[in-house]
Amino acid sequence: MDYKSAEKLLPKALMDEVQKYIQGEYIYIPKADGTRKKWGEKSGARKELALRNETIRASFKDGETIESLSKKFYLSINSIKMIVYSKK
Asked: How many distinct helices (H) and strands (E) make up the chain?
């Protein structure tokens, strides 16, 4: 997160209004609703995990055991169970 100078960014009228409430201190202005990305969307991790989980479900459906999937994907048996028995 960068600090920006409000004097450089905001119109004078808005700057005067903000100074009525806070002067010489830091203020955090969050992003607008709906503009934040969910976890893993920017890096692609969310997509990779969804693909991995789909592969696990397909393998389980084809008859592979939970134990073998656990070893193959380096996940606990409980993690595999949560993936294969989820409603996705």
From this structure: 5, 0
